[in-house]
Amino acid sequence: MRFDDLDKRLRQYETAYDFCVPQENFIVVRLDGRGFTRLTKEIWQFEAPFDIRFRDLMAHTVRHLMKCGFNVVYGYSESDEISLLLRRDDDTFKRKTRKIISVLAGEASAAFSVAHGQTAAFDARVCVLPNEKLVVDYFRWRHEDSYRNALNAHCYWMLRKKGESVSRATEAVSGLTRAQKHDLLFEHNINFNELPAWQKRGFGVYFQTALKEGFNPKTDETVQVKRQILHTDFELPLGDGYGVFVLEKII
C-alpha cells in the first residue's frame, strides 16, 4: 500500500473523536496537579497546610500558561489547581479539545517541574460555557471551593500538629459546621479571618496596561509607551465583588 493511502486510512482513527468547541462559547481549562496531595506533604515536604514556596511555584506556572500561545484573559489558582479563561474568540488549534488539553497539561507540567527542580505532572479538562453568567458562576464556584478547603485544611492540620491521628482529625473536622470550624481555630489562637487572603481565596493572574519608558530613534526622544504586563493578584475581592471582577475580565 502506498504511504499516502496508508496515511489517509490511519489518520481517520487518530482523529475519530476530535471535538471542536463551537464558536461563541467560552472555554475554561482546569488543570490539577497529579498526586500533589501526597507529593507536597510526603516527598517535597512543603509546610502544611500552606507554604508560600508552593504558592509561588503555582503562580509561576500560571504566568507561563498565560504566555504560551493561547489567548488567556484570566488565570486563577487555588491549592494545586489552575483555571484558565480563554478569550471568547480564541481559535488556537481550531478549538480542538484534544490539542488544548494535551498542550496546556504538558506546558504546566514542564513549567512547574523546571521551576521546582523535581518532576511534576498536571492533568487538564475543558469546560465549555455558553454565556458570561456561567463564566462568572464557574469562577465563584472555584473561589468558594478555595475558602471551604482552606478552612478544613487549617482545622485538620491544627489538630494533627496537636497530636491527633489522621482518622481522628478527619472525623473531628467532618462533623463541624462552618461556624464551629471558625470557633475551633479561634480556641487555638487562630483567627481564620485574619489569615492571608491567598490562602482563603486563591489568587488571580491577568494583564494590566502599564506605562513604560521607551526611546524613539526617529525623534531621538524618551517617550512613554503602553505595555501589557502580567499582574499576580494575591488580594482578590470577596462575594459579589469577585463576580464583578471576573466579568470585567470577560468584557
From TrEMBL:
UniProt-listed Enzyme Commission number(s): 2.7.7.79
Record domain Thg1 C-terminal: where: 135-216
InterPro entries assigned: Thg1_C_dom (IPR025845), tRNAHis_GuaTrfase_cat (IPR024956), tRNAHis_GuaTrfase_Thg1 (IPR007537), tRNAHis_GuaTrfase_Thg1_sf (IPR038469)
Cofactor: Mg(2+)
All residue ranges annotated as the tRNAHis guanylyltransferase catalytic domain in the record: 8-130
Superkingdom in the source lineage: Bacteria
UniProtKB keywords: GTP-binding, Magnesium, Metal-binding, Nucleotide-binding, Nucleotidyltransferase, Transferase, tRNA processing
GO MF: GTP binding; metal ion binding; tRNA guanylyltransferase activity
Pfam families with a match to the protein in the record: Thg1, Thg1C
Family classification: Belongs to the tRNA(His) guanylyltransferase family.
Protein name: tRNA(His) guanylyltransferase
Organism, as annotated: Neisseria perflava
Classification lineage: Bacteria, Pseudomonadati, Pseudomonadota, Betaproteobacteria, Neisseriales
